[in-house]
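Lecture notes, continued. The same structure-token format from the folding unit now serves as the input rather than the output. Read the line below as a description of shape only.
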């Protein structure tokens, strides 16, 4: 079947700490935990970013595609539906959300923001991970791209992709399934943990807060919220995540205005109320480093 078928660099020791924590977060497993959300919708948790699957009369659609090594397991999940994958929507360019494109894109159409195409089509580097991403092959690149928003009607659903600039990266999109009342937040939401914000690709911690505030106005208390990482969620947990961002950003900024350097801020640490957020993906020192990097870059730009 073919497609015609309908920052600033944080200290080296922090980079190493980040990699170790990232490996712990993405435990070595070659299977997906599948959770039924509603008829026709499944929540898939593998090694990388969370996947949302829509299955219906028009075929299959997934939001994000995980790491390459997870593709065989993902194909097994898709095969259970005895249908074909028509669309892959990428929320942003990072490999834990897009590497599955390299196989799935041979048959399915890939949809993403313009900046995702540009980044996947060129060499990228995430210094905090000590990671280099080489250009993807042509079939793994987005076939359909958009600037501000895109609407797709599929499986009796109205699906809207909305670009949120300069948040997690410069190419992030939030995906709304209007009838089902489900939203996939991509990496604008790490449920219950400090997030990674890619300052090197024009991400911004303040931008994430701004973007989440805009999304909160668009969803209801009973909306099913799919985070990029972490357990299935809801609006209240998204608000708690946003409040954590605001609180920790403000604390780091106050210490920066007191002429404290990064090491001194990390040694002092954040308020006790935020400690629980450092028990997941990133520890507190690494998150402080990301916030410091982002605020420093904002100050230079202004």
């Amino acid at each position: 079947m073919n497609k015609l078928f309908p920052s600033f660099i944080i200290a080296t020791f922090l980079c190493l700490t980040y990699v170790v924590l990232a490996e712990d977060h993405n435990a070595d497993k070659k299977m997906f935990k599948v959770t039924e959300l509603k008829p026709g919708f499944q929540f898939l948790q593998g090694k990388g970013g969370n996947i949302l699957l829509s299955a219906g009369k028009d075929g299959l659609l997934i939001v994000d595609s995980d790491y390459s090594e997870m593709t065989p397991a993902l194909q097994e999940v898709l095969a259970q539906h005895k249908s074909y994958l028509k669309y892959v929507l990428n929320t942003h360019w990072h490999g834990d959300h897009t590497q599955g494109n390299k196989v799935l894109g041979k048959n399915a159409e890939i949809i993403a923001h313009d900046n995702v195409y540009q980044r996947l089509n060129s060499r990228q580097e995430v210094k905090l991970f000590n990671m280099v991403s080489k250009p993807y092959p042509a079939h793994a690149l987005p076939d359909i791209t958009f600037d501000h928003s895109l609407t797709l009607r599929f499986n009796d659903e109205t699906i809207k992709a909305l670009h949120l600039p300069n948040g997690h990266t410069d190419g992030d999109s939030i995906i709304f399934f209007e009838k089902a009342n489900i939203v996939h937040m991509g990496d604008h939401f790490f449920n219950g943990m400090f997030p990674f914000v890619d300052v090197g690709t024009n991400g911004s911690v303040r931008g994430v807060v701004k973007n989440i505030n805009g999304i909160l106005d668009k969803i209801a208390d009973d909306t099913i919220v799919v985070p990029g990482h972490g357990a299935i969620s809801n609006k209240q947990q998204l608000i708690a995540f946003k409040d954590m961002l605001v609180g920790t950003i403000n604390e780091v900024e106050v210490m920066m205005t007191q002429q404290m350097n990064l090491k001194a801020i990390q040694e002092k640490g954040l308020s006790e109320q935020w400690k629980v957020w450092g028990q997941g993906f990133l520890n507190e020192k690494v998150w402080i480093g990301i916030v410091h990097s982002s605020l420093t870059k904002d100050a230079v730009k202004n």
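Point for the exam: The radius of gyration is 19 Å.
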